[in-house]
Write a structure and sequence with these properties.
The chain has helices spanning 2-13, 17-30, 38-68, 72-110, 121-135, 182-187, 193-217, 221-234, 241-259, 271-281, 286-292, 296-319, 323-336, 343-360, 366-378, 383-394, 401-407, 441-455, 483-495, 501-504, 515-524, 527-539, and strands spanning 428-435, 462-469, 472-480, 509-514. It is mostly helical.
Length: 543
């Protein structure tokens, strides 16, 4: 612990954040909670992990894009090398485990003198060391073998990656069963235009978040500024560009006030430069308003709070079943206040009032469905719109062609041939689609592995995870010899309300997919298209 802690301190002094994170994380693993530095080290390890995660996203996505920019022959050769390295590492771990077992047996024979092993301190120390070397440090829990497996395939592609310290999160090992196929690796590359755009957006967002971590968590404004300037210089534009400009303005302004910072040899190293850039590039924006009126944020917060209180009053009236009066009041708010922060909540509340009044009029659903469709069209890409869609489906209604056109901005709904092919005798995977931030993938994988071990132990099913797009991770259970076997598993899995209650009650999307269609899904990221295909050919039995 002392060695890890000292190395963490030294690397932090040099601002080598990846290595300091690894060593602080390892020191925390061996540190007692009553240690004088425990809270400090715990906070450092956590904050550094947040920063290093962003740096890893940049490194990983840059590496993937570099592979895409190679010629096809070079790319295939690189993929072969990656798989060979993964297989070699898995074999080395297997040999290390066998050697550790042999060493333990020899210690029992030679050093224990027939002593029962729990009383042999030397043997226990050697066993613990071998365990940590092979598995890393793990919490005391059931099914620990499956609880912390690495899910990132390309994380080792970055050049000059520092060696990791022992223990902690950074010492996780790859399950040999998780070595992907060449097809999966190729499908995971962001080479198509849409996937490349997503990858570049991830890099831009990671640069922005890294800047925040440098400034707010590590008190390192220099690296924060470098991160945001790299973002602005490297990308012509991105969703986080305006905020990055504003962060540069605020950071320089803070340094000028607190440190009397000046740099006469740098044209951009002052708050005035970034203030003028914001006003020039983003006139009328929230960031320009914040510069012109520094009290705007406080004023906006006050307005939002007043609007929230008013909305909650109308909501309370609705819960009191005053549907008619609430509907009149909500309509008045919608007509008078087009910039209300709670406008979409009001539109959904309006639809619910219509539902309440409809129930008194004989249960006519048409008015309610139309009100829900108005929420979908007026508030696209919001939780309220998603909830309204779900309600329409529960009511047996459908999004008509006109309503869908309006909701998605006039998308052409002409039927196109599906990119997916129905081949029931191909190998199949069962998939669970998990929105990023909606659950711990490691825990979900562990739960599924436990279920498979209890009920499908003879099938040797593997559980893997991948980031399928910017917003979703996909957990795969591999594999089933054909569609009918996979659907048997699908039906049992989705109906289990005991072992899998947490997963089945979380609203995750689950489906069966052939190995060939999975590669196509990974390339296209067209999950909606595949779910339509799955419903037709798997759930409804289409041909």
């Amino acid at each position: 612990m002392k060695s890890f802690l000292r190395l963490g301190d030294l690397y932090l002094e040099d601002l080598n954040y990846p290595l300091s994170q690894a060593y602080y994380d390892s020191a925390r693993t061996y540190m007692e909670e009553d240690n004088d530095r425990f809270e400090e080290v715990d906070a450092l390890a956590t904050n550094l992990t947040d920063l290093v995660n962003q740096l890893n996203i940049i490194s990983e996505q840059d590496s993937l894009l570099a592979l895409c920019d190679m010629s096809e022959s070079d790319r295939l050769a690189k993929i072969d090398t990656i798989i060979a390295n993964l297989e070699y590492e898995a074999e080395q771990r297997r040999l290390a485990a066998e050697a550790a077992e042999a060493e333990a047996l020899a210690a029992m024979d030679d050093g224990g003198q027939g002593m029962f092993w729990p009383y042999n301190a030397q043997l226990k120390m050697a066993g613990r060391r071998n365990f940590l070397d092979f598995w890393g440090d793990r919490p005391l829990e059931d099914n620990w073998r499956r609880s912390r497996k690495v899910g990132v395939t390309f994380s080792d592609l970055a050049e000059d990656a520092p060696a990791e310290a022992g223990g902690g999160e950074s010492s996780e090992v790859r399950d040999p069963d998780d070595i992907p196929s060449k097809e999966e690796l190729l499908a995971g590359l962001p080479c198509e235009p849409g996937a490349r755009d997503t990858s570049l957006a991830m890099i831009a967002e990671a640069y922005y978040n890294a800047g925040l971590a440098y400034k707010e968590k590590m008190n390192d404004p220099e690296n924060a500024i470098d991160s945001w300037q790299t973002l602005i210089e490297r990308f012509d534009d991105s969703d986080v560009h305006p905020t990055a400009y504003y962060q540069l303005f605020r950071t320089y302004l803070q340094r000028e006030i607190e440190e009397n910072y000046q740099n006469p040899f740098c044209e951009t190293c002052n708050s005035v430069y970034w203030e003028e850039e914001i006003l020039r590039r983003y006139p009328g924006s929230e960031w320009a308003t914040l510069i012109e009126n520094p009290e705007y944020a406080d004023e906006d917060a006050m307005v939002r709070e007043e609007q929230r209180l008013e909305y909650e009053q109308h909501l309370a009236a609705y819960y009191g079943k005053a549907y008619q009066q609430t509907l009149l009041d909500v309509n008045a708010v919608i007509e008078r206040d087009s910039v209300n922060h709670f406008m979409c909540q009001y539109r959904l509340l309006r639809a619910q009032c219509v539902a309440g009044l409809s129930s008194y009029a004989g249960g006519d659903r048409e008015a309610y469905i139309n009100a829900l469709l108005e929420v979908v069209s007026s508030c696209p890409d919001t939780e309220e719109a998603d909830h309204a869609r779900e309600l329409v489906e529960l009511l047996g209604g459908t999004l008509g062609e006109d309503e869908v056109d309006e909701a998605v901005g006039g998308t052409d709904l002409a039927q196109e041939p599906s990119r997916y092919k129905h081949k029931p005798f191909l190998e199949h995977y069962f998939a669970v689609l998990i929105p990023v931030g909606r659950g711990k993938v490691e825990d979900i994988r562990a739960t599924i592995s436990d279920f498979n071990s209890d009920y499908y132990g003879s099938m040797n099913l593997r559980v893997t995870a991948n980031l399928i797009d910017r917003n979703h991770q996909i957990v795969l259970i591999k594999s089933f010899p054909r569609q009918d076997k996979g659907m048997e598993y699908h039906d049992i899995f989705t109906s289990n309300r005991e072992d899998l209650i947490t997963i089945n009650s979380s609203g995750y999307t689950m489906f069966l997919i052939s190995s060939e269609n999975y590669v196509e899904l990974f390339k296209s990221k067209d999950t909606e298209g595949y779910l339509t295909f799955f419903d037709e050919f798997y759930l409804q039995g289409g041909e």
